[in-house]
Amino acid sequence: MTTDFAEVFTVSVRRMVPLLRSKGLGFGFDCTTSPISLPGPEPLARSLHRVLMSVVNLMNAGSFQVRAAVESMGTADECVRIEATGLGQVSDHQAVDRAMLELGLVPQAAYRRHDEQVGWGQCPILGAVVDLRVLHHEGLLLSMTFKLDAAQAETTPAPDAADAGAWVVNADSFLARAWSKRFRRLGWLVSLFDSCGLAVDHLRSRQGPLPGLLIVVEDGMAKPDTAVLLSILRQEQTRLIYAVVAGSCELERAQGPPGFEVRVLPFSPHDMQQFTSSAAAPRVALQPWGGQQVELPPLILIVDDVPSNLLVGRAMVEAQGYGVHTAADGFDAIASCRECAPAAVLMDLQMPGLDGRKACAALRELQREGAIAPFSIIALTAAWSAELRTQCVQEGFDECLSKPIGLQAMGRVLRRFVTLH
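^ Response regulator, sequence as received from the core. Prediction below:
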């Protein structure tokens, strides 16, 4: 199968955003690559997860921005450069040394200035050249440069919003700056509002035309009041987007707030192209952007030592439209994930041999090493308690749920943790 580089890159960054939010870091994203078809997404996904998560863990406060661009090498192959810039407080020298050791980077004392750590190396998965520079009182800069053995997909001219209005509500300053730059490249006139109330006030003032695109960013503290915006814009051709982070509870529902499409942050180039095409020609069917869009159902791995639980779990998951693999214990789960990384794992906690908590720890370590692709791990247990849930999340699970779990609850949790596109 083939897929587009920009989609794999965007999904990899989407997996990183919840960690950024939990650390209170501002976040920016950009991707200016043209469509590039990859023979398979997993090596790139493993490499990006391994490197980017290690670097994010070095940031204690401030902001983190990630971008990807293509550099011409004068050949049929493309050289891709990924840069991550962290501005603010960085972990101590020992933590940076550990991160460089994990990534296989060799410290470069000859290039080191006062209070700066520099490491160079090569990613064992992609062969990418990795350069990490940490200046402890200012931040860090990571670069990954690699040649893709890939085919350039057939491209069409980028759509132009022709000065249509794009309104962005609830975005923090870092996200707003990144979006403004990306939308303006596609011909949008961007307006920023700190709340739905301010956007409603502007609509009621009748100052200027109505927007062609309205994006409301999910607020982790309080649910934005989108009802009034919908009541004003429902008769217009405004496209309404509700933007959430991966793992948001909003993804549990089959749809978002009434009248809104739910999209996961950050937006991919394909998302941006769709938004812009809608503004340029609202009634024209959208064409895929760049590389072939793969429509295989996401694969879910169910891990349980009780055969009847595996049978029931398989039936419930398949009823939601997902593919299913099963494993009888932690050892089988690890072997299955090494062979074929799933979109998510439903893991029983109490099993003979290797139990669910130890299996989760082993899988997370493999992901940190880049040996397997990243995915969500959800614990299932008949002994659920709030204290146990907290412990599981601290140990690396994305969620811990009580079993038996109903069909509708199963659908909600899978939508929440599998939806990355």
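Confidence is low (pLDDT under 50) at residues 282-294.
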